[in-house]
Specification:
This protein is an alpha/beta fold and about 600 residues long. It contains 26 helices and ten strands. The chain has a five-stranded mixed sheet with strand order 2-1-3-5-4, covered by helices on one side. Strands 6-7-8-10-9 form a five-stranded mixed sheet.
């Protein structure tokens, strides 16, 4: 920042800076003002990203695998994803390193939130580097602030930068390299460090290779001999990483998946239009041409089949606001020269400010309502884990990539978690299965997985839409097609129970009885208890997640005659023994375990 104590840099100092006038304010005042602007922008960027950290949409299927790899590396356990998420060992190590140093897994409600915190830190670091790069390219403080503000406040950026995508880390490395290269008084150590940053970016994501033309162009302008040195260092590192160390370091892109470019652009269409204009217009501005070339190469990558749109946009995101702000500044100064000592802002500055306000306002109008921030820091996977811990603690569970990380973070032994990749030749024995609705169809890739799930019975469902999580019991016996349906028997017995003079039911409880949604063990025991004393049924409380799965209610709340009711249920044996009998302020809460044996109620058939 010390090199930019004036309003803009001298065009003679570096061929990679935009022309601009000198200011008259003292260097210390400039530095303080710049510091204030940067801190305000970082507060805005960080605050908005904290608010939208747990936004449920847009969702990315590959995110779950990256979270699981980060957890596995940090906890020295093994994990193999189901495929399609790409490979980035160096990126996973970066994610894991932050979560270990910051204890993010211990502080966060979910494993996903813990690793998304890394993305938040990367976004803030990227904003700082974007500011320094803009200043070193000759942008004024206000133009630099505009570039950072576009990234900080855009709904597209908020939605994209919260996702666990390794390209966000690669973007930080690229910005760091460009900041070092754009330093006018750079020495050999700065160029060597820039080569290291570029190597780290490429090892994090192969798409970072598209920034090499910009980096090489800038280096060749400033110091051709050093450009050769950086090229040698970079090629040496890539040769080792993609050669002898390929098994440990070589990255691969994730498979193309939703969200598409159209889905992202829908969050901020004005930003997308102005970014496109800036990429084209920047070709006409000499200092910006290297960045425009790399940006257009990234845009071209969007047209290549199989290249993930989200990954490309993650790298393009910090580049286009920089070009937009620089192009606006260049056009404004060409039309309205600002002479030395003239501190008034001309029409060009007013126009630039108006355009910026329009872009941000359009983003608010289109994108912010679509992001829908949520205060739910747990989510359906945590609810499913709690349900399974209560009803099947210690069981072996077949899980998808997202559930693996959440269950492992929640304390479920990783040796009892079976990921889909373990079903390559045959699925290990498992008792339960937990899968999210957003999980890609894996039956074609792992036929043994389809066989294991063939006899699964849905037992609990949590969440809705793409966030829905289904818990299924594996190995259930096939239903006897000749046996009458149990639901009709539950309905008939429930109606008889509701009509009994010795049983008083609350209206909601009557509705549940007559709908045939009460567990047969409760129906039988309530009828037996009514023979001993009057019974008042306050409710048949639902177990969270079981109603959407069509499971009968297996809890009852009894009020009045509580001593006799508690003694009655505590004394039950065998099939009719409850899993718990609890005295509450509202009465006695009786809970039965899952899966009533068939045939407890006499089948009812109409004459």
């Amino acid at each position: 920042m010390a090199q930019h104590s004036r309003e803009t840099t001298d065009p003679g100092r570096s061929p990679a800076t935009l022309p601009g006038p000198a200011g008259t304010t003292s260097p210390a005042a400039h530095r303080l003002l710049s510091l204030d602007i940067v801190l305000a922008l970082l507060a805005l960027a960080g605050g908005l990203r904290v608010l939208y950290l747990a936004a449920p949409a847009p969702a990315l299927p590959a995110e779950a695998a990256n979270v699981a790899h980060a957890y596995a590396l940090g906890h020295l356990t093994s994990f193999t994803d189901a495929g399609g998420a790409g490979v980035s060992p160096f990126g996973w190590w970066q994610l894991s390193a932050y979560t270990m140093v910051s204890d993010a897994f211990g502080r966060s409600a979910t494993a996903l939130a813990a690793v998304r915190e890394t993305m938040l830190v990367a976004a803030v670091a990227g904003a700082v580097l974007l500011w320094f790069l803009a200043r070193r390219l000759g942008l004024t403080r206000w133009a630099s602030a505009a570039a950072v503000l576009l990234v900080a406040a855009s709904p597209l950026a908020l939605g994209l930068q919260r996702l666990v995508v390794v390209e966000h880390l690669a973007a930080v490395w690229v910005l760091g390299a460009l900041v070092l290269i754009a330093r006018p008084d750079a020495r050999i150590r700065h160029d060597a460090l820039a080569a290291v940053c570029l190597l780290a970016a490429v090892l994090t994501s192969p798409l970072a290779l598209l920034f090499l033309p910009a980096a090489g162009w800038l280096l060749a302008r400033r110091a051709p001999a050093r450009a050769a040195l950086v090229a040698v260092l970079l090629n040496l590192g890539l040769g080792i990483a993609f050669g002898p160390a390929a098994g440990l370091l070589r990255p691969h892109l994730a498979a193309a998946s939703q969200p598409s470019v159209a889905a992202w652009v829908a969050l901020d269409p004005a930003w997308a239009v102005l970014s496109t204009v800036a990429l084209v217009a920047a070709l006409a501005v000499g200092p910006l041409r290297p960045f425009a070339v790399s940006g257009l190469l990234l845009v071209a990558a969007l047209l290549v089949p199989g290249v993930p749109d989200t990954a490309v946009l993650a790298l393009l995101l910090p580049l286009t606001p920089l070009l937009f702000a620089a192009v606006v500044q260049t056009v404004a100064r060409q039309r309205v020269p600002v002479h030395r000592g003239n501190r008034r802002r001309g029409p060009g500055a007013v126009l630039a400010t108006g355009v910026l306000v329009a872009v941000v306002a359009a983003g608010w109008s289109y994108g912010y309502p679509a992001l829908r921030p949520t205060t739910d820091r747990g989510g359906p996977l945590v609810e499913a884990q709690d349900w399974l811990r209560t009803n099947a603690s210690g069981a072996r569970v077949l899980v998808d990539d997202g559930a693996w990380a959440e269950f492992a973070k929640g304390g479920w032994p990783t040796g009892l978690l079976v990921p889909p990749a373990a079903c390559a030749s045959g699925c290990p024995a498992a008792d339960w299965a937990v899968f999210t609705a957003g999980t890609p169809a894996l039956g074609g890739r792992y036929p043994a997985l389809g066989t294991a799930l063939a006899d699964a019975g849905v037992t609990a469902v949590f969440g809705t839409g793409d966030r829905q999580v289904t818990v299924s019991r594996l190995g259930l016996p096939a239903a006897d097609p000749a046996a009458p349906p149990e639901e009709s028997a539950r309905t008939h017995a429930g109606e008889a129970l509701a009509a009994s003079a010795r049983i008083t039911c609350a209206p909601d409880a009557v509705a549940v009885l007559r709908a045939g949604r009460v567990d047969p063990r409760l129906i039988a025991t309530i009828a037996a208890l009514a023979a001993l004393q009057p019974v008042h049924v306050s409710a048949f409380p639902a177990v969270p997640g079981e109603d959407p799965a069509g499971q009968p209610r297996r809890r009852v709340l009894l009020a009045g005659g509580e001593e006799g009711a508690a003694a009655f249920y505590t004394g039950q044996r065998d099939l009719f023994r409850p899993s718990s009998v609890t005295r509450t302020a509202d009465g006695v809460l009786v809970t039965y375990p899952l899966f009533a044996p068939p045939g407890l109620l006499v089948p009812f058939s109409s004459p």
